Amino acid sequence: MRARLGIALLFLATLAAAQPYPSRAIHLVVAFPPGGPVDIVARLIAPKMAETLGQPLVVENRAGAGGNLPTSQVAKAAPDGYTLLAHSASYAINPSLWPNAGYDPQKDFVAVAVVALQPNVIVVNESFPAKTLAQLIDMARTQPLAYASPSSGTTAHLTAENLFRLHAHVPMTHVPFKGAGPAVAAVLAGEPPIGSLGASGPMAQIKAGRLRALAVSARARLAALPDVPTLGELGYQGMEDYVWIGFFAPAGTPSPALQAVNEAARKAVQQPEIRERLITLGFDPSSESLPETARFVREETVKWGRVVRETGAKAE
Q1: The domain at 24-117+244-311 falls in which architecture?
Q2: What is the overall mean pLDDT for the chain?
Q3: Residue 297 pLDDT greater than 80, yes or no
Q4: Which CATH code is given to the segment(s) 119-216?
Q5: In CATH terms, are 24-117+244-311 and 119-216 the same topology?
Q6: More confident residue, 151 or 132
Q7: DSSP string covering the chain
Q8: Quick one: pLDDT at residue 209?
Q9: Where are the domains of the chain?
Q10: Which of 93, 133, 102 is nearest to 243 (CA)?
Q11: Model pLDDT for residues 156-212, shown as the tens digit of each residue
Q12: How far is C-alpha 116 from the geometric centre of its chain's CA atoms?
């Protein structure tokens, strides 16, 4: 009797393994609370990916330790393609920023897709005297100034540290906030009057004239801010810094599952309504192959590790 039961169970397991991927719902764990850019983009794209995959994509928010806790949890999930991670550029930053992030970005995961990128923007309150980045830096040489960022260890924080400390050689006190919303509100109130933020956060206030954008960390000027120069145009080369949003799978996930998720993400991003919505949010849509995605994340990990070391940035 036991032998027959064992044979039956083995048959069922073999049959399940032979089913094409995916054969049930996929869980997409967002490594941050609801309402942030990773959550917004994941929930925008997930339904379109589900249409292609033929199974639901269930978005689940988890949080803790700057995204490290949910990331380490997903790293331990079964590598079967049914648990994925949605993360930001902090995925590549945190292992250098934290003494123990709880995961190795190159060994514990496979980068499946990077779906959206967004540059950072240096902004000032409308009443702040500096009208250009050069004027701001000149002011910083003669008086104490502070800038706001969404949080320690974000690309916005590291872009500012890299710009002010390493390139311009001026002191500037960092004031971290708990998210882009509070940081934008602080700059609007002039406490502090300077900010380094992902472009989507302050975009509405820039358009309304309540904040003034001085520079963007992009390769080219943003269509939404055509009069704002890039840092490269202003003489700060090699500062093409982006907030990005990507999907990851635990290491060991079968190649057919990785390919299926990558293709579903690329197809979703290429749809006109998704592209339009991402652009409206201040993102550049992205849809690269698995090898190109792996290369990008690997280069980002090396780059931000260097910036963290050179600036001495710490998690707060």
Answers
A1: 3-Layer(aba) Sandwich (3.40)
A2: 91
A3: yes
A4: 3.40.190.10
A5: yes
A6: 132
A7: -HHHHHHHHHHHHHHHHHSPSPSS-EEEEESS-TTSHHHHHHHHHHHHHHHHHTS-EEEEE---GGGHHHHHHHHTS-SSSSEEEEEETHHHHHHHHSS--SS-TTTSEEEEEEEEEEEEEEEEETT-S--SHHHHHHHHTTS--EEEESSTTSHHHHHHHIIIIIIS----EEEE-SSHHHHHHHHHHTSSSEEEEETTTTHHHHHTTSEEEEEE-SSS--TT-TTSPBTTTTT-TT---EEEEEEEEETT--HHHHHHHHHHHHHHHTSHHHHHHHHHTT-EE----HHHHHHHHHHHHHHHHHHHHHHT----
A8: 96
A9: 24-117+244-311, 119-216
A10: 93
A11: 999 999 999 999 999 999 999 888 889 999 999 999 999 999 998 898 899 999 999
A12: 8
Place of tokens 């993400």: 265
Q: How much is the pTM?
A: 0.84
Q: How confident is the model at residue 224 (pLDDT cuts 50, 70, 90)?
A: confident
State pLDDT tens for residues 5-59: 445 434 433 444 557 999 999 999 999 888 778 888 999 999 999 999 999 999 9
